[in-house]
């Protein structure tokens, strides 16, 4: 049959037969191993790899609603709950949601895959995960517009037309552009359509810190048909998440600070770019007020736009979204949730959490943790990458270490 479908429920459907897939088994073994490492005391014997690996005859969801992930260790404010939307998206990175409710998820490594995740019955648990593309070059970025899914590889933007209706038989992609640099260092991309209808595509610095051609360390934008590319923002080291304020239409974006300036320097950044042509400092000025020791000579931080909010040093702030759903309390309305993937260039780890930045007008006034607990001691069992507000107002959070999408919901106290 022409259908090329993988449903990531621990099975591959082949010619109408169902049999355990090698991947499903490996995933089960990995999850079991992760739990062995992370679940800690007491229950290790009850969760042996053997019992998990032998389980694929049943739906992983019905037998283990938490998919073996230690959700109990996550802490959220009063009234919020977190659950597993799906634990079957290996390397889950950036997300986009179609109006029909299909969640598309990019990845950065492994098979170069893009996944489509569907909650068929609307109960807050996605039962169907399909691989709609594979073999791509770090297809981290996904954006949906006018019936098509746009996917960002390192140097190309691809477009899959009519994708929602063809999840079981995805169309061949149209190449929107193949004109981005091929550098894999900071080459994976977050992409999104702005309120102006243009597709925003960042190009990270091809280095930790360096001067480079103008296309690098920028956020570009281009028309949906691939024409008209221009640089919108300069001096951006590596942004992997942005969104536009629902009322002002202004662009806000995270940016990852450089490495090797010490444990507490520089901060990661949340920036605001209300107009084209602004310069956010890299590589000359880091974090708004730190003249770079290698590239700062002859420059002044006053010449560049400082962050709207300094974030933790090395937290690796990635995806961010304004909350515009109806489920959370009013105090969260139009505030920013951002995913902190977690540090590597620091002697003690920080990040590995979802944070909240509160705004007053167009000013950031606070920065606080919203979900913590993926980091336990010195080991992180999960790493948040992106956040997405679902149609029902729940907040979806992707995790490329656990291969999971979480669903954060709120219900008022009794
Ligand atoms: Ca469901
Ligand atoms: Ca900056």
Written account of the structure:
The chain is mainly β. The chain has two domains: about 1-60, no CATH class; about 70-410, TolB, C-terminal domain (Neuraminidase), CATH 2.120.10. The chain has helices at about 20-40, 50-55, 60-65; strands at about 10-15, 15-20, 80-85, 95, 105, 115-120, 130-135, 140-145, 150, 155-160, 175, 190-195, 200-205, 220, 230-235, 240-245, 250-255, 265-275, 280, 285, 290, 310-315, 315-320, 335-340, 355-360, 365-370, 375, 380, 385-390, 395-400, 405-410. The strands form nine sheets. A five-stranded mixed β-sheet has the order 12-13-14-15-19, with no helix packed on it. Residues about 1-65 have low confidence and may be disordered. Bound molecules: calcium ion (2 copies). One calcium ion binds near residues 119, 121, 123, 125 and 127. The site of one calcium ion (CA) has 6 residues, from loops.
Strand portion: 25-35%
CATH superfamily grouping of the largest domain? TolB, C-terminal domain
- Please, how many helices? 3
Largest sheet: 5 strands, mixed
| Helical residues, percent | under 10%
- Domain count: the total is 2
Runs with pLDDT <50, length 5+?
Answer: 1-64
Architecture (CATH level 2) name of the largest domain: 6 Propeller
Name the shape in a single word.
Answer: globular
The total beta strand count reads 31
Within the CATH hierarchy, at the fold level, what is the topology of the largest domain?
Neuraminidase
- Physical arrangement of strands within the biggest beta sheet: 12-13-14-15-19
Please give the radius of gyration in angstroms: 21 Å
Hetero groups bound? calcium ion
Cα end-to-end separation: 53 Å
* Highest CATH level, the class of the largest domain: Mainly Beta
